[in-house]
From TrEMBL:
GO terms for cellular component: pilus. The keyword Cell cycle does not apply. It comes from Lelliottia wanjuensis. The keyword Cytoplasm does not apply. Keywords: Signal. One of its GO terms (biological process) is cell adhesion involved in single-species biofilm formation. The lineage of its organism: Bacteria, Pseudomonadati, Pseudomonadota, Gammaproteobacteria, Enterobacterales. Residues 32-178 form the Fimbrial-type adhesion domain. Pfam families: Fimbrial. This is Fimbrial protein. Residues 1-19 form the signal peptide. InterPro entries: Adhesion_dom_fimbrial, Adhesion_dom_fimbrial_sf, Adhesion_dom_sf, Bact_Fimbrial_Adh_Pro.
Length: 179
């Protein structure tokens, strides 16, 4: 998400029918403009915006108990042309979750049904620690001037003692904030 510089202004139009009579005093109308000027931020690399991450294909028996996990699949978010004035970026991940806010629920992205059950998707940071989905506190990353690559990974995690086979896709969104 890029900070947007905006200016708001009001425009007043007085219809001739509602105009003040010629003998009335004309009032002074004040027009107040507000806005913010911010430092340049970073561009999100086009390859980072719409990614498909293939976590892998796993047998239901690979998930032996609740909390079993698959191997993880890496993905990156690349921020390009970061201004030297920007020192940090906050990354927020959003999506549909269940009772565990660190797990992304599976969704029928193809519309074909047959969704797996008993498993969800877990997002991990660069240190392989779980990341909360829909958190109000972004993950903070130090940035250097120029290009920056932020590393993450995804894996399946069982949520039930029995995992059933099927489509195991999910949709994850991210946003970038500059404090």
């Amino acid at each position: 998400m890029k900070k947007i510089i905006s200016v708001f202004a009001g425009l007043f139009f007085i219809s001739p029918i509602l105009a003040c009579p010629a003998y009335a005093d004309l009032a002074q109308i004040n027009l107040t403009m507000t806005g913010t000027i911010v430092d340049s931020t970073c561009d999100i690399d086009t390859n980072s915006k719409n990614q498909t991450v293939h976590i892998g294909s796993f047998a239901t028996t690979d998930f032996k108990s609740v909390g079993s996990v698959s191997v993880d699949a890496p993905f990156t978010i690349v921020l390009k042309k970061c201004s030297s004035m920007i020192k940090n970026a906050g990354i927020l991940f959003t999506g549909t979750t269940g009772s565990d806010p660190t797990l992304l629920s599976l969704t029928d992205t193809s519309g074909g049904g047959n969704i797996a059950s008993g498993v969800a998707v877990q997002v991990l940071d660069k240190d392989k620690k779980p990341v909360a989905i829909n958190s109000s506190s972004p993950l903070s990353y130090a940035l250097k001037s120029g290009d920056n690559t932020l590393n993450f990974s995804l894996r399946y995690k069982s949520t039930l003692a029995t995992v059933t086979p099927g489509n195991a896709t999910a949709v994850l969104y991210f946003s970038v904030e500059y404090p």
